[in-house]
Amino acid sequence: MKLTEKETEILEILEEDSRLTPETIAKMIGLSEEETKKLISGLEEKKIIVNYATTIDWKKVDGHEGVTAMIDVKVAPKRGVGFDEIAERIYRFNEVKSVYLMSGAYDLSVVIEGKTMNDIARFVSEKLSTLESVLSTTTHFILKKYKHDGIIFDHEDKDKRIVVSP
Amino acid sequence: MKMKTLNSYLSETVINMKPSGIRKFFDLAANMEGVISLGVGEPDFVTPWNVREACILSLEQGFTSYTANAGLYELREKISEYLFKRFDLQYDPAEEIIVTVGASQAIDIAFRSIINSGDEVLIIEPCFVSYAPLVTLAGGKPVSVSTFGEEEFKVNPEILEKYITSKTKAIMICTPNNPTGTVLSKKELEAVAQIAKRYDLLVVADEIYAELCYEDEYVSMPSIEGMKERTILISGFSKGFAMTGWRLGYIAADRVFARAMLKVHQYSIMCAPTMAQYAALEALENDEDVLYMRKSYQRRRNYIVQSLNEAGLFCHMPGGAFYAFPSIKSTGLSSEEFAERLLLEEKVAVVPGNVFGQSGEGYIRCSYASSMEQLQEAMKRIKRFVQSL
After folding, report:
1. Which pLDDT score, from 0 to 100, does residue B2 have?
2. From B26, B302, B372, residue closest to A163, measured CB to CB
3. What CATH architecture is B15-44+289-388?
4. Domain boundaries A58-144, CATH class
5. Which UniProt keywords apply (chain A) (predicted)?
6. What are the distances in angstroms from CA A53 to CA A8, A18, B110, B206, B312?
7. What is the rounded end-to-end Cα distance, in angstroms, of chain B?
8. Could you report the per-residue pLDDT of B340-373, keeping only the tens digit for each?
9. Closest by alpha carbon to B363, among B318, B322, B329, B388?
10. Chains A–B, number of C-beta pairs less than 8 Å apart
């Protein structure tokens, strides 16, 4: 879809900080607040803006440490629907956080979150492996998140500049 | 024999030099908690990682000795290519480019290489605080030429011409300007060039903010017809490439000037730091971040200028750099009073315009090289402060 320059600017701004109000964004891109609101609604309706979420480091919250795994899944694609049908069967599960079709040694990359390692083991053995077109799975547990979606976790971003300079 | 008071040993030139007016605000702000500073004259971006990594690699490989006086030849070649690609300038990397310790040292050796005792240099104000003292140190006489808010701080050729005497040697200009953010268009540069040619003057052009130009294509002074041989071009990596602490700048000038400046440079500095030169090489080779940073500043500029106007402080839209220079005349306060009270009452640090020259009185410099979060809070506080007056 071809977007206008202002629409692209709005996307770039919101992607960095979705808390900025239409009023502030309007000033940043030189439009009125009304025009900006309209463009944002348009982008939402077109599902280009899909969601406004917050990046949270759950590891820091007691009782919410959780476990994340990336699962390489080999599947047998079906005539007519290819990989789409099996991908949909997989992504409908709530514990599945992302599903990508991959090039290379396996077909689908599935990211799943659970409270414990057992939750994930159960999901893989009971739900995922038993799907008809799934040929094999390889599960990798994530040990530590350093950077996620462009955000560095535990990053000290204190301003190191002197307060006033020429 | 008994020693005289220590003060009496000092150079008269240095004794007579006023300390920068910025110092006072630094001392005030540095000791306060919770201050939002719009007083910072440098990017809020940390140097991009690829550039820092290139420096680390150079250290690992043991590149820790001197370079040629003029700087690494590869770097001068890259600077030459960059100046051609971006600004259509042609400089011979072998003889017309010198890598310096920041643009500041570049300005210093430029003045020391062209000034004879008593020569006058016209300094377009408001401007960066170093120009006049460096002219004085070189034995010359700085002559202030004011520009005015009503004219968006553009150089007024008629006023400029009035200050020319038989002793005038050069015109010092900076575009985009610190502190006003004003960018001179091709036509406006041509008007200055006309005067330089008519009175046979040199131009020292500080173009350190050239990468941060938001509206039109940037036009560089030496690209104006007949100006290459009359211009000493000063630039560097500090602002556009977010490399202030690396202290790396450069000079491009006709070989006659470059040779003279290289003499001063080799005796006073030897060469710019080697590791910083390797970093700069990478900065020029992979410069995608420059575009990202420019866009980011541009949006913050739009935001802050509109917010200042809404707060009741008239502010023209600056074409470049990362400074807004609003008028505070409507408040009836002087620049220093305004800045001091704003700091004490609302904990926002700005720089009073008069420290950049007398024609900066009635204005304050607000740097928008800060996060949107900080800028939004600062604008709220400034609005509240102006309403309280």
Report:
1. 84
2. B26
3. Alpha-Beta Complex (3.90)
4. alpha beta
5. DNA-binding, Transcription, Transcription regulation
6. 19, 8, 53, 44, 36
7. 60
8. 999 999 999 999 999 999 999 999 999 999 999 9
9. B329
10. 61
